[in-house]
Amino acid sequence: MTVSGHRRRPVVALYERIADAVHDGTYPPGSTLPSEPKLAAELGVSRPALREALLLLQEDGLLTVRRGVGRTVNARPPRRGFEHLQPLEELIGGGTGPRVRALLRTLEEPTDFTTQHLLAPARAELRFWESVLGGESGPAALCHEWAAADEVLDRAHPAFAAALRAGEDGPGTAARPAASMLSVLVGASREVALHAHSGITATLLGRRRGEQLGRPADTPAVLVTQVVRVGDTPVLAAKHMLPTGAPALPVLQSR
């Protein structure tokens, strides 16, 4: 599948407008955002679109929702914890093989999430892959994955950079089964040590992601964020959204 020309998703543009307002002091740390109706009117957007952007900002640690108070601006992103590196489609598939449906393969400018976790400069172009992972009973997870900028990958992990390019526009691509970006990374890293950090939080699917997974917008979900590094260099950042009823994931913990 060939990467399309630069494409800016509307929710990303709205996300960045609000994030910029946080960074320029319009909404300083500790302040409470206006109510959804008021903020939607100020920004000239629909409430469903605003709600999607606010969910992303909450997931990325810029906002916190407090009962009876509303959405407040955080002073700093939360720390992340749990780690275990394995392609999610293999865990969901239960060893029956990957079930990945590619929704989008494109380039994006950095958001706060990718700036924070991939250390991407403001004008970088990052590969963005959106995929639905299937379980035994239908769609089980929605995955958003970003790779570091090409110049970073060429220096830190050239085999991963080459594998991404081959998977996007190499010969025979159309006949190749879809895979997650993490699966491509793991396959290209047989002689490269990878280190991953992941975090787990509770959230709601939201309208757009609910439509992609065939579930109501207010469906509770587990959000797994993941950052993979080669040495000290982050090469991949991802968000995996698993709605209520998704297959259980085995988690290995040690001390």
UniProtKB/TrEMBL annotation:
Domain HTH gntR-type span(s) in chain numbering: 8-76
UniProt xrefs under Pfam families: GntR (PF00392)
Keywords, ordered alphabetically: DNA-binding, Transcription, Transcription regulation
SUPFAM superfamilies the UniProt entry points to: Chorismate lyase-like, Winged helix' DNA-binding domain
Origin: domain of life: Bacteria
Keyword Ribosomal protein: no
Signal peptide (UniProt feature, chain positions): none
Full protein name: GntR family transcriptional regulator
Annotated organism of origin: Streptomyces omiyaensis
